[in-house]
What does this fold into?
Amino acid sequence: MSLFLLGAGASYGSTTEGAPPIGVALFEALRAFNPPGWGTLPASMADLFREDFERGMTRLAQENAHAMPVLQRAMAAFFFNFIPTVSNLYVRLAERIRARNWRGAIASLNYERLLEISLLHGGIQPVVGQAAAAGQVELCLPHGCCHIFCEGARASSSGVSFSGVGVTFDGPVTIISNSADFQRRLTGDAVPPVMSYFEPQKTTSAGVSFIRVQRERWANLAAEADVLAIVGVRCRPHDTHLWTPIAGSSAEVVYCAGAAAGQEFRD
It folds into this structure.
């Protein structure tokens, strides 16, 4: 069985127009998109985000944890807006999957929907949490996604504040792909979508069982794979939920990224 693991670099490199930003560009794009939230972070914290986004989130958790769910909702809104063009490499990937009746699986760490929409446009139905049948591809989401919401609890966004550290919500999840429905849910509900925070521990406020099961599924897929292609994933040693299954896998591992990331992977 063949398995892809796609990171932010894969989505960034999938298109020459409208690519989701990475690195320093992500923080600056969030500030421009959401001036009342991301744009008001103090200068010292902003400098940390520019240096390393995860370090900035760590400082935010220490100094203003109640801001984390609010900023997470804004980040979800930001990523929801990215739509693949017909020239996107994910679209070409979907076309090849269909043409060759490829029966592998794809794990994505990305918050945006480029891959999912591309698969659907290519006539491939992505399925999450179950093995794929004919005409389907299993999509594993160890970090969640911007349009997945937890139905276990809701709270008014105008009257509820809670910490992004140590407060979790659980229950069934639902996918909201309609733009108007997404905006209503995002603006009316204080609970952010089922997305791991972009910090070293990749903790999650909503849908903790969904994330746990997806990470378990990732480990099982890595164990079953004959070939594992990792595209655009930075090798952060603390992401043991990703690297431990790879280290224990007998799969042939193909790592695709820039030169600096390639050296990190070799190290």
